[in-house]
Design goal:
The protein is built from eleven helices and three strands, in the order E-E-H-E-H-H-H-H-H-H-H-H-H-H. Helix 2 packs antiparallel against helix 7 and helix 4 packs across helix 5. The radius of gyration is 27 Å and the shape is elongated. The two termini are 24 Å apart.
Length: 280
Amino acid sequence: MRRFAYIGSTPQGATTRGVVWARERSDARTMLENRRVTLIELSADGGGARRLVGTRASRLAVIRALAGQMTAGVSMRRALTATETTMLPAPVLRAVQDVRAMVTEGETLGLSLERAALASPVIVSLVRTGESVGDLPRALQLAVQQLEHEDAVAARLRTALTYPVILAVTASLSLVVIVLVVLPKFADIVRDIGGQPPPLAIPLLSIARATKAHLPAVLVSTLLAATGAIAMFGSHAGRSALRTMAGRAPLLSRMLTRWHAARTARELGTLIRSGTPVLR
């Protein structure tokens, strides 16, 4: 099967875009027409590495819904159809529809999840192992446990970083107020009584005067720098560069190495417990 990228419009007039897997371009058109998508552009997509669609929570909701229904004895196709009726973000819903279409065409669930960018390699391996040994519901349950563990670790990490981030922001704002507002006023008071500011305060006062004189330019430059940093670290190349820098930091590198080792050990243990061969 080939991957086709499309741009279309929904019956409500909203623009939608995504990918579908089909044998031919005509099959892709038919698949999109069945979804009531009016095509604007359809092109063959070479594929390659793709980011997973949606958030971790939305992907967990999909796998959890499939696991619950298939454990209860619902067939795979009906489970996928029922999952489409749950409250899912639009990109995740389109990915579930792609999975159902590929499964209907005869593809395995594991391969369909991988092609739709709806599961990580670990989850895909769990599902494929479940399919090969004939125990897909148990494999999906293990996948849910793995995703719940990852979600819990991410939540704990966010909680642990919240307080330091608040302290850093508060300290930065306090420093700005002291340098730009408080220190110049004290300097004026000292001059009024015939004194001179301390030598260490003179560079700070110069910085404060220059910042006030060019405040619009400073604000625009700060905003552009923050926007550029967010855009850079939001890209795959930016995140790779950030990981490289973090890996070279003396203390942080050891912490990251231990964290990755623990994560790898857990994922390997989960795969082996599901029946995946060690060398697969």
